[in-house]
Amino acid sequence: MVNPTRGVLYPARLPEFHRLVPTGPASDLVAWFWIPEWDIEPGRSSRQEIVGYPALNLVVEPDGVTLSGATTHATYRDLRGAGWAVGALLRPAAVAALLDDPASVVDQERRLDEPELLAAVTTAMRAGEGHRERAVDVFSQWLAERVGVLGSASFQANALVEVLLGDDAASSVEEAATRLAVSVRTLQRLAHRHVGLSPAAMIRRRRLQEAAEQLRVDPDLDLATVAAQIGYADHAHLTRDFRTVLGIAPSTYRAHAGR
Using one digit for the tens of pLDDT, what is the confidence trace for 154-189? Predict the structure, then answer.
């Protein structure tokens, strides 16, 4: 599921950016850790625009710890000065230990009072060579201790995300339910409890990420071809979703992303 640029609308604008795959117990809790580091000239800024994965992120920065909910639209952040962040794209199994209702933080951020995690990650990020790996190690240890032993429901929730977002993802909610051997209603409850979005919304987000990536990598593809390849009925449906989430037409995005 790790892709270095999917979800990032304009990869050329990225500062130094790393994605690290978790190991050990954290493998069931985190899809990947992401670490941007930046040092931007005074008076300048770098806008980072994202169409995020339908998941929650636990983020440590020098000024605190934040839990970011799944998003329903493209988001951006203007980077200024010097800084860093260490984020964990959470698997559903980790969410229940941090939040009772993921839907309550959709399109929102919530500050968490986690001084031990903040101190451990900050110390690691200041440690010189190998600082990113050390930051991920202490983050992983903290999260594994916080979540504890996983039950069958947690693994079922993780399987939900793989079926909806993985390399061989289901093309419909009904197909996903069949693969997991559950009812559509059970699938919807799992998604609401562990992500905060509906399964249909998660599928749409995956398709939009794939569409943006294809338009950016191969700008000569016509929209009808892109729509067909990622499961849209026609390019009109793709254009509608693109405008709803990103605020621009696919053709406009393609023109800007190629610069």
Answer: 999 999 999 999 888 998 999 999 999 999 999 999
Domain chopping of the chain, boundaries: 11-147, 152-198, 200-257
H or E element, residue 93: helix 92-95
Reduce the DSSP state of residue 43 to 3 states and report it: coil
Q: What angle do the packed helices 223-230 and 235-246 form, to 10 degrees?
A: 90
Which residue type, as a one-letter code, is found at position 108? Q
110: Cα separation from own chain's centroid: 16
CATH fold of 11-147 = Jelly Rolls (2.60.120)
Q: Tokens 């693109």 correspond to what residue? A: 242
d(CA 229, CA 111): 40
Architecture of the structural domain at 200-257: Orthogonal Bundle (1.10)
Task: Look up the pTM and report it.
Answer: 0.87
